[in-house]
Structure formats: structure tokens, C-alpha cells
Amino acid sequence: MEQITLYNGVKMPIVGYGVYQVSKEECERCVMDALDVGYRSIDTAQSYFNEEQVGTAIVKSGIPREDIFLTTKVWVEHYGYEETKKSVLESMRKLQTNYLDLVLLHQPFSDCHGAYRALEDLYDEGKLRAIGVSNFYPDRLVDIASFSRVKPMVNQVETHPFNQQIEAKRWMDKYGVQMEAWAPFGEGRGGLFENPVLVQIAEKYKKTTAQIILRWHIQRGVVVIPKSTHKARMEENLNVFDFVLEQTDLNRISKLDKKQSSFFSHSDPSMVEWFVRMVEERKGK
């Protein structure tokens, strides 16, 4: 497995397994399958409600904890210094570990600065090997990188051939922040898997369109966390290190960029209100 090195020297696999939208019922089995086929990086989050299942799968796998790069994310309702610190310790309990390899702030809302200070202190205490953010647009990223003691090491954002985040990556590179792609396939929206350019390139290399997309990410230096509940597909997603896309093919893929989200904009006020409603509903429960 190829690895990237974060600016603090911590090594992170460039391909991991994500458990977003993996149900509690399936999560333990899926994580064990992923570890069995060779994944050594697992990405979860407080808002996925499957941290306990991830932790159980890692323990049952018998793989030494230090061989697994484990990521979780703090949800907005836990922002603010004290609540963030408490929530991360609770995530560690659920994940059955006394340290985490990476913890991210999941969204750029509410008291994210207070929450980030908690991550900085947990990092200083050795409970977190790396810290970062998720869904922070360039202005928010520059803000938190400039006014924090410890710059974010990772920014996990929506990135795929239809939304290539060229400008965002330029700012991340400037500040030494590693780009990580959630939805590296864009969840197949807009007919991504059937796109004629990607299909033609896949035929050329005798690979699937999914493998071409993952290889494109890797050659851009972007960490990917594809999710699948099928073991054969998990293996397929790891089988991307035996070929290299030629520059002409990279150029063709670069022209697919629509420069807009396939999901939603975090700068849309109505979407911010949607997140606020979600937080309030969860507090009500």
C-alpha cells in the first residue's frame, strides 16, 4: 500500500476504506472484510453512528492497532472546546483505542475554532497523531490554518472527476494540508461511471472506470476512502497500483471538471439552515 506523509511526519495510506452510509448491522462485517483484503486505513465519524462496530471489527481482526490508520470526525453538535474534547474521548471508547490516528472537524460551522483548540490540546497530549478538518472551503481553511497553533494536516472534501477542486487543492498545497476525497466516485451521480471518456480510458488499461477514477486521484496525490459493502468490489478498489495513467489520459479527465458540487454547497445559506435543523433534531433526541 502506498502512503503519503503528512507535514508532521505521520504516514497515511493513500487508499482507505470509508464507512459512510454503512449500516450498524453491516459495518462490523464490512470492516473485517476490508481489513482482510488489505485495507489498513478506516474512516468513520460520530455522525455515521457506527464507531462501535468499527472498533469491534478492528479488535476481532487481530491486526495490531499500530498497523491500522484510524480516522473519525467530530460532529457539529459537539463543537466548542469542552464538548469536543469530551466527544473525542467518547469516540475513543467506542472505537476501543487509547489514541486516534486522525480526527477531523466534520463541518465548518458553529464554534469550529473552539472545537479545533480541543483537537490541538489532544494532539499535544499524544491522544491524536494528526488533526484536520472536513468540508472547509479555501477561505475557511486559510482562516483556521492561519489563526491556530497547529495547522490542519488534512482537509477531507468532495473531490471526483466532475468536481476536481483545482483551486481548493492549490490552497491546500500552499499550506501543506493533505487533500482527502470523500465521495471519490461522486456516488456515481451524473452518470460518472458511464462517462464515455472514462469508459474509453478503462478499456485502454483493461481496468474498470472505478479503478481509473481512483488511479486519477492517486496520481494527483489525493487520499481516497472508497466505500463498498461487497468484498469483491473492495478488492477491486485496492487493485490500482499496477498501472499508471499517461499524461494524455490525465488531460482528458481534467476536461470533465464541472467545477461544482454534485451534492450541495456549504456556502448556501439554506444548506447551512439544513445543518442547523439537523443538529437541533439530534439534540431533541
From TrEMBL:
User: Which Pfam families does the entry link to?
Assistant: Aldo_ket_red (PF00248)
> Where does this protein hold substrate?
106
Keyword vocabulary terms for this entry: NADP, Oxidoreductase
| Name of the molecule in the record | NADP-dependent oxidoreductase domain-containing protein
Entry annotated with the keyword Cell inner membrane: no
Q: Which family does it belong to?
A: Belongs to the aldo/keto reductase family.
Active site residues of this protein: 48
GO function term, MF aspect, one: oxidoreductase activity, acting on the CH-OH group of donors, NAD or NADP as acceptor
User: In which organism is this protein found?
Assistant: Butyricicoccus pullicaecorum 1.2
